[in-house]
Amino acid sequence: MKGGWMITLTIEVRSKPGKINELSQTLQALLPTMRQEKACLNCRVSQDFEDGDVYVLSSDWGAETNFEGYIKSASGGVLLGAIKTLGQSTRIQLGSDAKWEGVESLVQIRRKT
Fold first, then answer.
1. How far apart are CA 59 and CA 5, in angstroms?
2. What does the pLDDT profile of the chain (113 residues) look like in tens digits?
């Protein structure tokens, strides 16, 4: 990793009622594309065992420009669209020690030029 830069993106999504299967399938379908990104070191989706309506997407990125490039890509747009459409509530954490934010944090990255 150049300069030792790495960020972990964690997205916690609570499914809207009746949308759990669609959310699960969409998140799983996005993993192969995300894994092909240059700086994606790792990504996975897991379901909360205590609350089955919650899914967590976690991905580690080794370069800021590639992370932002993914968020701005068509696949990144599908990810944002899915969590907005299928999610009842969403929390985003950019970095393992960062505070939790709303989906707007990713929308701002997409708008950045």
1. 14
2. 445 678 899 999 999 999 999 999 999 999 999 999 888 999 999 999 999 999 999 999 997 788 888 999 999 999 999 999 999 999 999 988 899 999 999 999 999 86
Q: Which of 93, 75, 107 is nearest to 12 (CA)?
A: 93
CATH number of 2-111: 3.30.70.100
Query: Contact, 91 vs 100, CB < 8 A?
Result: yes
Helices (H), the chain: 20-36, 64-72, 74-86, 104-111
Place of tokens 């897991």: 46
SS3 label, residue 16: coil
pLDDT, residue 56, reads: 97
Q: Where are the domains of the chain?
A: 2-111
Give percent helix, percent strand, percent coil of the chain, each to the nearest 5: 45, 30, 25
Q: What is residue 2's DSSP assignment?
A: G
Token pair 């505070």 in the structure block, residue = 99
